[in-house]
């Protein structure tokens, strides 16, 4: 029971401190990724590149980040 409670608390904490990024892959798949607010630029780039690898089968050479306010 203690493990379930700790897992639920961890999930709530991660959800509250995450930012949703809209992603468009090289093969045209559009989706979203939840990344922590305090993630570095390298971590964001790696997450987006991995998302592209999972959906398109290609690891991109470059990742273009566009921030809209």
Q: How many strands in all?
A: 2
Strand content: 15-25%
What is the H/E order? HEEH
Number of alpha- plus pi-helical segments: 2
Q: What share of the residues lie within helices? A: 40-55%
| Mean pLDDT value | 81
Instruction: Please tell me what the overall shape is.
Output: elongated
Classification by helices and strands: alpha+beta
Low-confidence stretches: none
Report the end-to-end length measured between terminal Cα atoms.
42 Å
Radius of gyration: 15 Å
Strand line-up of the largest beta sheet: 1-2
The profile of the biggest β sheet is: 2 strands, antiparallel
Give an overview of the whole structure.
Residues 1-18 form the signal peptide. This protein has 69 residues and is of the alpha+beta class. The chain has a domain at 18-56. The protein has helices spanning 2-16, 41-56, and strands at 18-24, 30-36. A two-stranded antiparallel sheet has the order 1-2. The model has no long low-confidence stretch (mean pLDDT 81).
Q: How is the topology of this model organized?
A:
Layout: H1 2-16, E1 18-24, E2 30-36, H2 41-56
Antiparallel strand pairs: 1-2
Task: Provide keyphrases for this structure.
69 residues; single chain; alpha+beta; two-stranded antiparallel ribbon; 2 strands
Provide a short characterization of the protein structure.
With 69 residues, the protein is of the alpha+beta class. The chain has helices at 2-16, 41-56, and strands at 18-24, 30-36. Strands 1-2 form a two-stranded antiparallel sheet.
């Amino acid at each position: 029971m203690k493990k379930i409670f700790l897992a639920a608390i961890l999930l709530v904490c991660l959800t509250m401190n995450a930012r949703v990024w809209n992603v468009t892959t090289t093969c045209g798949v559009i989706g979203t990724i939840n990344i922590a607010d305090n993630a570095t630029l390298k971590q964001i780039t790696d997450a987006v590149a991995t998302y592209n690898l999972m959906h398109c089968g290609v690891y991109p050479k470059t990742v273009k980040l566009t921030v809209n306010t």
